[in-house]
Amino acid sequence: MKKIVLTSLLLVAFSITSQAQFFKLGLKAGVNYANQNGTAITVNSTNYKTEAISNYHIGLLAEVKLGERFSLQPEVLYSTQGAKYDAVGVANDFTNDIGYISIPVMAKINLNNTFSLDFGPQASFLMSKKKDVSINDQKNLDFGAGGGLTIHITKGLFLQGRYVVGLTDISPEAKVKNSVLQVSAGLMF
Prior knowledge:
This protein is mostly beta strands. It has one helix and ten strands; from the N terminus they run αββββββββββ.
């Protein structure tokens, strides 16, 4: 039995090392420029205008090559988003600062060895929210679609720009959607 397990482990290790050019792991971190948009943002009978806020994101990613010019890039990120809410005609301003575990799955089209176009869906799970926010009933799940550009500086180092637009309302009360512009730097191993 031990010989079968040892042989299996050796075969898996050999398979992973021989396929290393098709599968890479990496880290990335960067800045978020986030906002929350809606047609009529009303919270607790007060009308608001939103302003974008700067935050951060950090996480892990993988790249799975599916061809010469095409690959998939699943990611797991901790992403802080939100907006500053300015009350119209009232002094009830607040900042909606929220943290998500975001799972984007980007399709990558490699234009050449330096540039790739990235696009795909993203699911985000609410992890934290600032305590002084008066938005009740905030949903725990947010879906979005993202698109962007990656610049490969070296084989391992890259810069990335991405825009993610929310497809679902984050709260039935406020009727707003997340939007975030992300600029990242990362390292593939």
